[in-house]
């Protein structure tokens, strides 16, 4: 915690503001609320597309065709993605990459959490599991892959904080274990007795994971925050918005994004019904891509600006949050609501998650990335997506691995 | 998978032709002032390695087929005949590569280096011995990762307490092998989860395999591009052009004089053709005798494919890798072994799947669950042992132990179909 006025503009990233924005800078005055909002709205030409948003909402509420709903909301999400990135960057310039990416991920996932709770309440357990799986996979492999790939084309090698990366890798491994054990349990134990055991196991594990996640937050933000400091110091960037505007706008934008994304997702389901694609594919691959498009795009822009810590914080951080925070939370909520949500995913899905986490861990452990690593992640994602494409629809499938 | 010296070619798994390798025919500029005559160069090539003693088996193998000495003798004789041919193929390819430069050399390497595996496999697919082919792919990967590497660590560790190699390149290898593993695990997992409708499942697994094969080949292409173009600097300090490892700047960076090709271009191309034809002939007889062997000797076809066939394809690299490890060039040894596995996993196997697609044979990436687990374990333990950049004889023993356990398991594995 350093509240000395830095001599150079670019050192204010580690300065925590408590209540008043009293940072004397060399020349520009601290932005006012008015100027912040103005900056936000004028920051890019994409913002002209913002007019599509009310139309998008209208199209859904007035029951226009799925195609209209899809197109209008799609156009609307583009400027939102941009603004999301802008707000996050601003926050990170003020508070550091760690908090910036944390806030981005949290607001992004908070709304998904709400949607999942609603689904859970309606007993749609498989839908919840599918959306969790899809989100984690798309963040770990697709987003990270595109980031590494595109970033690697521009910059020969990109660096990010090794400690942060390795801690993330270990935590992902822990999440993996939390899913493997119930699956192994299921295959070894007689199926009738297994269900009860697995439910109880899931409840206990969820509590453990939540505790770990909270400890991780404390580690990251309090006791070992110095380990997470970015090694590359930005140029002369300074935050262009006040705290309240930046955080507030992040919150509001996230809400609008989730509404728009929700309509997008709904329209996709309609469009796809007629194409007869496996619903597993739609649920695990298509919907998370579409639903998280905004965050994905902002991650990629971070990578292209060589802000790898921010990029990884958003992508992998989001996966971690879902796996270690949101999922256990949902399991516990299910406990209270009497819905049997467990940590036992279908064996194929567990296998896919394990494999994805494995390769991501290998690739981020060294703190460097290049375009080939991005290509590898994308290849893994494509293979997995293809497998889900050929995966027969739920209902006729037996999930017990064939005894060899 | 034959490698080369300062041309950082695809996979270097043969000691590059300086004094480093077993069976190098190339001398540095200083010692060979006059280009040798045609006869002389051929003689040099033949004298270059003790493996060439096995060349006598070629006529024996051919005779055995035509005189009907029985499947076991045909198999065995041709088995020993192919080994020196594989080595010769590598040597000649290296020679040509010295002339044509890195990129083309690398591509040449990829093709001819794997010629033996490719030829044997294509012949086997045509005879519908799909399981044998799958087994031999898997066996090649496992034998390179466990058997060859294990022997390298043990042999090298006998002479030196601890050997070092470059971590970064080892880790790139590890990641690529993991990706290849994923490509093989996913179809198996899919199959295990979806076991009701048999007919449809086969169809879907086939489609998935074909799609995955395309993805893998693209990744392989990217890898070549990465290595030869965009990130050459990561591989360039190699004095010996090992693919999967950066040379330790210290001892190995002795200034090497540029080599000269030993054979004239026409002779090398001609010998390439001759050797390939010889390999094809012996391979044809070899593959033809497999079914007979399986019936008479009681060995399962899986065992034949998994343990025996890979030895044929890999014996040459095996010898090279071990001799190089003894000379404390562990980077090179790992480059040979791991690089070879990678080529099989990312190039040869997908290529065979696509080939099967073209000639309409159901070659898939779906291995039995057991085999997939075995592959996964092998990659896992190898990755663990090479990640720290150091090796000792005990690590070698661990790898060999794993291989023995796996081989035993396959010996007792019941043959279905």
Automatic annotation (TrEMBL), chain A:
GO CC field: endomembrane system; fungal-type vacuole membrane
> Region (Disordered): which ranges?
1-24
Localization, per the record, is: Endomembrane system; Vacuole membrane
Q: Which Pfam families match?
A: Na_Ca_ex (PF01699)
Going by the UniProt record, its keywords in alphabetical order are: Antiport, Calcium, Calcium transport, Ion transport, Membrane, Transmembrane, Transmembrane helix, Transport, Vacuole
**What Gene Ontology molecular function terms does this protein carry?**
calcium:proton antiporter activity
Q: Which residues form the Sodium/calcium exchanger membrane region domain?
A: 67-221, 246-389
Q: Which family does the record claim for this protein? A: Belongs to the Ca(2+):cation antiporter (CaCA) (TC 2.A.19) family.
According to UniProt, the name of this protein is Vacuolar calcium ion transporter
The species is: Ambispora leptoticha
From TrEMBL, chain B:
The protein's GO terms of the molecular function aspect are:
calcium:proton antiporter activity
InterPro entries reported for this sequence: CaH_exchang (IPR004713), CAX-like (IPR004798), NaCa_Exmemb (IPR004837), NCX_ion-bd_dom_sf (IPR044880)
Q: Where is this region: Disordered?
A: 1-33
The record, for Gene3D superfamilies, names:
NCX, central ion-binding region (1.20.1420.30)
Q: Name one GO biological process term.
A: intracellular calcium ion homeostasis
Assigned keywords, A-Z: Antiport, Calcium, Calcium transport, Ion transport, Membrane, Transmembrane, Transmembrane helix, Transport, Vacuole
Which parts pass through the membrane?
A: 50-69, 75-92, 104-125, 137-159, 171-193, 205-226, 269-290, 302-325, 332-359, 365-386, 393-413
Task: Give the record's GO CC terms.
Answer: endomembrane system; fungal-type vacuole membrane
Q: Which PANTHER family match?
A: VACUOLAR CALCIUM ION TRANSPORTER
What is the recorded function of this protein according to its Swiss-Prot or TrEMBL entry? Has a role in promoting intracellular calcium ion sequestration via the exchange of calcium ions for hydrogen ions across the vacuolar membrane. Involved also in manganese ion homeostasis via its uptake into the vacuole.
Q: Which family does it belong to?
A: Belongs to the Ca(2+):cation antiporter (CaCA) (TC 2.A.19) family.
Write down what this protein is called.
Vacuolar calcium ion transporter
> Which organism's genome codes for this protein?
Ambispora leptoticha
């Amino acid at each position: 915690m350093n509240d000395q006025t830095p001599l150079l503009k670019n050192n204010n990233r580690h300065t925590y503001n408590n209540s008043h924005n009293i940072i004397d800078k060399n020349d520009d005055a601290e932005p006012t609320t008015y100027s912040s909002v103005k900056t936000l709205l004028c920051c890019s030409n994409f913002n002209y597309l913002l007019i599509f948003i009310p139309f998008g909402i209208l199209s859904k509420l007035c029951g226009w065709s799925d195609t209209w709903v899809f197109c209008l909301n799609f156009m609307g999400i583009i400027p939102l993605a941009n603004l999301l990135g802008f707000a996050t960057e601003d926050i990170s310039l003020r508070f550091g990459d760690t908090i910036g990416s944390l806030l981005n991920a949290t607001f992004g996932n908070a709304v998904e959490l709400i949607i999942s709770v609603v689904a859970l309440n309606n007993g749609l357990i498989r839908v919840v599991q599918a959306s969790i799986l899809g989100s984690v996979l798309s963040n770990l492999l697709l987003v990270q892959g595109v980031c590494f790939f595109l970033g690697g084309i521009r910059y020969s090698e990109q660096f990010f904080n090794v400690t942060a990366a390795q801690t993330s890798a270990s935590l992902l491994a822990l999440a993996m274990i939390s899913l493997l054990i119930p699956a192994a349990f299921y295959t070894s134990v007689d199926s009738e007795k297994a269900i009860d055991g697995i439910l109880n196991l899931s409840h206990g594990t969820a509590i453990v994971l939540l505790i770990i996640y909270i400890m991780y937050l404390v580690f990251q933000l309090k006791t070992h925050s110095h380990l997470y400091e970015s090694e590359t110091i930005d140029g002369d960037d300074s935050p262009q918005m006040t705290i309240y505007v930046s955080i507030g706008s992040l919150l509001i934008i996230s809400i609008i994004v989730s509404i728009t994304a929700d309509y997008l997702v709904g329209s996709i389901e309609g469009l796809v019904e007629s194409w007869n694609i496996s619903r597993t594919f739609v649920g695990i691959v298509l919907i998370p891509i579409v639903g998280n498009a905004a965050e994905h795009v902002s991650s990629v822009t971070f990578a292209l600006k060589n802000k790898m810590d921010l990029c990884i914080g958003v992508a992998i951080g989001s996966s971690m949050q879902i796996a270690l925070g949101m999922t256990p939370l949902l399991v516990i909520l299910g406990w209270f609501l009497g819905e049997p949500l467990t940590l036992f995913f279908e064996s194929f899905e567990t296998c896919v998650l394990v494999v994805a986490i494995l390769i991501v861990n290998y690739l981020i452990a060294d703190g460097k990335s290049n375009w080939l690593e991005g290509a590898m992640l994308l290849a893994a994602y494509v293979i997995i997506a293809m497998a889900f494409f050929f995966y027969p629809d739920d209902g006729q499938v037996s999930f017990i691995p064939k005894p060899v | 998978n034959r490698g080369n010296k300062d041309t950082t070619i695809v996979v270097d798994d043969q000691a590059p032709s300086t004094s480093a390798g077993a069976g190098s025919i190339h001398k540095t500029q200083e010692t060979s002032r006059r280009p040798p005559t045609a006869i002389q160069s051929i003689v040099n090539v033949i004298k270059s390695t003790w493996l060439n003693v096995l060349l006598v088996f070629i006529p024996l193998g051919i005779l055995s087929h035509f005189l009907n000495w029985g499947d076991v003798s045909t198999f065995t004789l041709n088995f020993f005949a192919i080994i020196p041919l594989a080595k010769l193929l590598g040597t000649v390819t290296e020679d040509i590569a010295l002339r044509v430069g890195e990129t083309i050399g690398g591509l040449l390497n990829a093709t001819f280096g794997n010629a033996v595996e490719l030829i044997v496999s294509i012949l086997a697919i045509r005879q519908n011995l799909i399981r044998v082919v799958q087994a031999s792919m898997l066996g090649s990967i496992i034998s390179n990762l466990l058997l060859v590497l294990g022997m390298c660590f043990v042999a090298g560790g006998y002479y030196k307490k601890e050997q070092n190699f470059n971590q970064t390149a080892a880790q790139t290898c590890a990641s690529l092998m993991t990706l290849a593993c994923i490509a093989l695990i996913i179809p198996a997992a899919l199959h295990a989860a979806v076991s009701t409708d048999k007919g449809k499942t086969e169809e879907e697994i086939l489609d998935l395999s074909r799609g995955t094969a395309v993805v893998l080949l693209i990744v392989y292409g990217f890898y070549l591009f990465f290595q030869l173009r965009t990130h050459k600097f990561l591989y360039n300090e190699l004095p010996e052009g090992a693919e999967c490892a950066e040379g330790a700047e210290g001892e190995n960076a002795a200034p090497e004089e540029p080599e000269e090709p030993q054979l004239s271009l026409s002779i090398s191309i001609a010998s390439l053709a001759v050797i390939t034809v010889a390999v094809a002939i012996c391979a044809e007889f070899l593959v033809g005798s497999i079914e007979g062997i399986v019936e008479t000797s009681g060995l399962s076809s899986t065992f034949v494919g998994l343990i025996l066939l890979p030895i044929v394809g890999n014996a040459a690299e095996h010898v090279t890798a071990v001799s190089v490890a003894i000379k404390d060039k562990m980077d090179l040894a790992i480059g040979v072994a791991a690089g070879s596995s990678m080529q099989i996993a990312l190039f040869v196997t997908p290529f065979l799947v696509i080939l099967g697609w073209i000639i309409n044979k159901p070659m898939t990436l779906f291995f039995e669950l057991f085999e997939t687990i075995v592959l996964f374990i092998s990659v896992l333990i190898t990755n663990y042992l090479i990640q720290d950049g150091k090796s000792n004889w005990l690590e070698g023993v661990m790898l060999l132990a794993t291989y023995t356990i796996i081989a035993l398991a396959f010996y007792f594995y019941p043959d279905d179909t």
